[in-house]
Amino acid sequence: MLVAAAVCPCPPLLVPDVAAGAAPELDAARAACTDALGVLAAARPGRLVVVGPVERTGPETNPETYPGGTRGSFRGFGVDLDVRLGQGDEGSPAEQRLPYSLAVAAWLLERTGWSDAPVEGLGVGDRLVPERCARVGRDLATRSERVALLVMGDASACRTLKAPGYLDERAAPFDAEVAHALGTADMAALTTLDTGLARELKASGRAPWQVLAGAAEGADLGGSLLYEDAPYGVGYIVATWS
């Protein structure tokens, strides 16, 4: 059963080594993520599942699993920094590497010294339909008597003229709707998010948020919004469910 969840953004810029001179601009977001992970630890889960977006092309494909100990890297950003998902090594294939969303999560967990429960990862593509996301979430909630989720994903990338997706007037209302849903643990609002609009606005968190909604069915959790802003024109949200 799901006992707690934390929602965090997943830009590699969250990692100071990647952000370099711009690192202070996301200090508030990093602090909120640290607080969110504290809520997960306080719930004393038996297992932590990290859910994040992965880039996929073509039709809907199955989510991809990443065992505890899977490694990731930020070398693609010119930074000599490697991470590992959790402290254990559950036999992940040597060639398997974390997508950036889960690598950022691994960095957050290492940064806070996570050792409260075994960790595994799950990558979901943006073609995964809401009904399938909900089924995946319900399955995750059965992995242990006490499951916690760390849900990675960004809101729209269209909040300003210089945003990755340019300015779209629909972006701010979309992000406000998402922030309210995540801050109030509104599963129905998350489940009914417009998938087409989310894709047009480049909101990478849509599928992971809908996995969370499925996992939380029957858990009677309350939400709290810790951070919501749009530096660089991208919506970043931090929330907890407990």
Automatic annotation (TrEMBL):
CDD domains: ED_3B_N_AMMECR1
Name of the protein in question: Class III extradiol dioxygenase subunit B-like domain-containing protein
